[in-house]
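Hey team,

Filing this mostly as a record. A colleague (T.K.) asked me to run one chain through the structure pipeline before their review meeting, and I want the input and output archived in the tracker in case anyone asks later how it was produced. No errors, nothing strange. Just documentation.

Input sequence:
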Amino acid sequence: MGAVISGLLLVDKPAGLTSHDVVARARRALGTRKVGHAGTLDPAATGLLTLGVGPATRLLTYLVGLDKQYTTTIRLGQATTTDDAEGEPLGEAAPTAALAAVTDERLAAEVTRLTGEIDQIPSSVSAIKVDGRRSYDRVRAGEEVTLASRRVTVSAFAVTAVRRGPDAVEVDATIDCSSGTYIRALARDLGTALAVGGHLTALRRTRVGPFAVDTPDTITLDALVSAGESGSAASLLATPAHVAERLFPVVAVDDAQTRDLSHGKKLDGLDIADASPVAAVDPQGRLVALLSVERGRARILTGFPQDS
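Output structure:
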């Protein structure tokens, strides 16, 4: 057998494709079915999509819950059925006088109210399951869906530009938030608070945890497809060890300890503070396992097969 294909792909998703479309193209480029993603992006959205390949898909569990950053454009003046530009208008468009009343001061005050820990009702066209079916499937089938609110954290909501017209106020913003925050719901709630309605018109994910879209590690989908055609797609993968070292504390293990871990044994006497997970990296720089360490003793949370 040859080398195990394993690692993380950071892809800048273009508009017009689903996250599953990107996974399908990655599978073709890499010649493996073992590809998954952490954190769906809507077809209209662009930006960072994190793909796990091979055994590194086991890391995706830890990527899903990372905080995220988005750049967005919110159009104030009209609510929609989907809280974005794909939906149908809801109610009447805001009159010019109501839009004129959306001063910089009022806008800043309502943005502040949507910053910090907030209770947010997700958009009804979210992927949240209701009695076993996705909420968006129920909405598209004509059902009326109201989801329960959830506690989320918007750590930063920075307005970067405001464009005023007779029928809309467009607001550009950069938003840092916890996993599970719906940016389209922020657009909806901002429009409601200002009594003019609002919806999302553009969304780009620029960061997932420590991984950013504007770094050399992130590739375009065209570059991935091209690398697949030349047989070099595997060279684009960030190694499991590289990913784990950016997420977790690291402990170096020697060859004997590596063998013990490969056989499922616990390790004693590790000189590292209690933590979980801890990345165990062997002398060749490979991720051997994720560990839970308590008082110097480590047990395996998940192992990672090496080249065979």
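Quick notes for T.K.: The chain is about 25% helix and 35% strand. The radius of gyration is 23 Å.
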